[in-house]
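Example record

One chain of 196 residues, shown exactly as stored in the release files.
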Amino acid sequence: MTSLDVEVTISPGYAYERAADQEHFLNREKTRQLFRDFLGRGKGGKAWKFTNSPLFLDFLAGNRTYQCTPWSMPLRTVFGWQKPCYLVGEGYVQSFAELMEGTDWDQYGVGKYAKCSNCMVHCGFEGTAAREGLVRPLEFLKVGMKGVRTEGPMAPDIELAGARPADDVHEAQVAAEMEKIRVTDPEGYRRATRAA
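Predicted structure tokens for this chain:
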């Protein structure tokens, strides 16, 4: 990577509940070990250029316990703003204010909601790492200069047993939004369904 002068961003997988092959998604424990092994080959990540923050990489390697900041990378689609984040996908709202003020953010995150249980993805955790970097800049610099620790004990992970069950609402949400488009823009709807 460095010989090509390419910048790389990395992020763990996510247990995408609509995927047919669930057994190949990694849980948090396996993800943390995978990143330790990977970063250990590159001197704690120092051998490569990453666009991720050092604290996010440190989190992926199991050295930090973070909770998701789901509003840190909002997504706007043709249906509107997707809530609570683009991976969970539990509806759409028309304004950013409605997304921020109308979403019960405390209901989402690792240990809070089953769909979030194995998530370590940048869209929620990079924002948490960035916030910590602002609050603890010396810690950010320390990890950035020394590299990610890839040996020794891992930070405790969040307990998952108390997470509320997942709501399977995505298909119904998409169907409702497609119906709105069919009614308000029949030609656009025909183009969209032909392209799919």
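Notes: The longest helix spans residues 170-184.
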